[in-house]
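Async update (no meeting this week)

Hi team, since we skipped the sync, here's where things stand on the single-chain job. The sequence we agreed to prioritize is pasted below, unchanged from the tracker. I ran it this morning and attached the output directly underneath so nobody has to dig for it. Comments welcome in thread, and please keep replies under the output.
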Amino acid sequence: MKTYSVKPSEIKRDWFVVDAEDKILGRLATEIATILRGKHKPQFTPHMDTGDFVIVINAEKIRVTGKKLEKKIYYRHSGYLGGLKEESLEKVLKEKPEQAVMRAVKGMLPSNKLGRVMLKKLKVYAGEEHPHAAQDPKQLDIGA
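Output:
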């Protein structure tokens, strides 16, 4: 038996639309990360980007369990002394709900160049509309 490794010319990318309304953030993010990596395909190769494009709509209507709205804190640092900024999940969902989904998925992808390339294939929108109708995306049903 020889080990099969997919060639870049053999990779076929599809477009999927995921409706995030009433979905739990973490469970949704794991399914999206799996599709972005390409682990749902038989020709999955860990060192190559074999994944598909994912469009997430209704990001403002996601749910979280427990007291995460108040207790989950996102941190970032400006690089200067005293430059640590923090925001709660509640504030992030109110002001920019796309960021909450992006950060959840980013944490489930590899932390290297390949992960950054995969994250570029994720398109997140707060409302129902998206500008990717020309790509003819398929509806993807992810369980609650």
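Quick observations from my side:
The longest helix spans residues 25-37.
The longest strand covers residues 15-19.
Reply here if anything looks off.
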